[in-house]
């Protein structure tokens, strides 16, 4: 079994959308200060690094993250290289949909750097593509950028397409070190009551889980 960690490191300076809460770790107790243990807390947006959006993030009638079915975040997955697309929405014509063989699809765009300042020119998804994925039985879609919609989108057309199709979605993945192909995805969100998203420790597994 080989495990590929597709979660970018979360640290001070990890890019977040402008105006969102950056990551901050607050240390209450520390061995270095003579305390009997280390104890800390974090202040951050839930949409940091690898994370799962809840439908309540983009629709007033959407479920919050603790209500989501965990089956969507665990199981067979396919990584698709669309790095040729650039800073626009991925369309159905950008790759061969007939080659999809799993109910979970992750798009490798290589258009966003997770350890550099936030850059808004990244690859996103088209609502037409999301509808086509639904027709093929896809239940989860993910990508290695901060959002399935462009950074300046207010209508959030692709998020609304996710809601209509009852998709699970992962954003902010780090797919740089994996090859396109088939894996097992494990990316379970935390059980945060009422939350609009959750960070995940997303991994891809190749080989038997037993």
Give a quick precis of the structure:
By secondary structure, the protein is mostly beta strands. It has 2 helices and 13 strands. A 9-stranded mixed β-sheet has the order 1-13-11-5-7-9-10-4-12, with no helix packed on it.
- What structural category do the secondary elements indicate? mainly beta
Classify the beta-strand content into a percent band.
Answer: 25-35%
CATH topology: Glucose Oxidase, domain 1
Give me the CATH architecture, please: 3-Layer(bba) Sandwich
- What would CATH call the class? Alpha Beta
- Percent helix: under 10%
Tally of alpha and pi helices: 2
Q: Element order, helices and strands?
A: EEEEEEEEHEHEEEE
3D structure, described in words:
- The chain has 210 residues and is mostly beta strands.
- It has a single domain, classed as Putative cyclase (Glucose Oxidase, domain 1, 3-Layer(bba) Sandwich), CATH 3.50.30.50.
- The protein has 2 helices and 13 strands.
- Strand 9, helix 2 and strand 10 form a beta-alpha-beta unit.
- It starts with a strand and ends with a strand.
- The model has no long low-confidence stretch (mean pLDDT 97).
């Amino acid at each position: 079994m080989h495990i590929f960690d597709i979660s970018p490191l979360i640290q001070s300076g990890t890019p977040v959308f402008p105006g969102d809460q950056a990551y901050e770790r607050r240390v209450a107790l520390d061995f270095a200060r003579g305390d009997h243990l280390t104890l800390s807390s974090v202040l951050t947006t839930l949409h940091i690094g690898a994370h799962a959006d809840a439908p309540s993030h983009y629709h007033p009638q959407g479920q919050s993250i603790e209500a989501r079915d965990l089956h969507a975040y665990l199981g067979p997955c396919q990584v698709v290289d669309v790095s040729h697309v650039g800073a626009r929405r991925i369309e159905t014509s950008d790759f061969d949909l007939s080659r999809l063989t799993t109910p979970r699809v992750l798009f490798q765009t290589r258009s966003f750097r997770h350890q550099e300042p936030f850059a808004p020119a990244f690859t996103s998804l088209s609502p037409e593509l999301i509808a086509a994925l639904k027709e093929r039985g896809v239940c989860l879609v993910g990508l290695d950028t901060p959002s399935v919609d462009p950074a300046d989108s207010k209508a959030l057309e692709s998020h609304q397409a996710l809601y209509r199709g009852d998709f699970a979605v992962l954003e902010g993945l780090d797919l740089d070190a994996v090859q396109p192909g088939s894996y097992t995805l494990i990316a379970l969100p935390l059980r945060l009551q009422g939350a609009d998203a959750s960070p995940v420790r997303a991994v891809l597994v190749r080989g038997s889980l037993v």
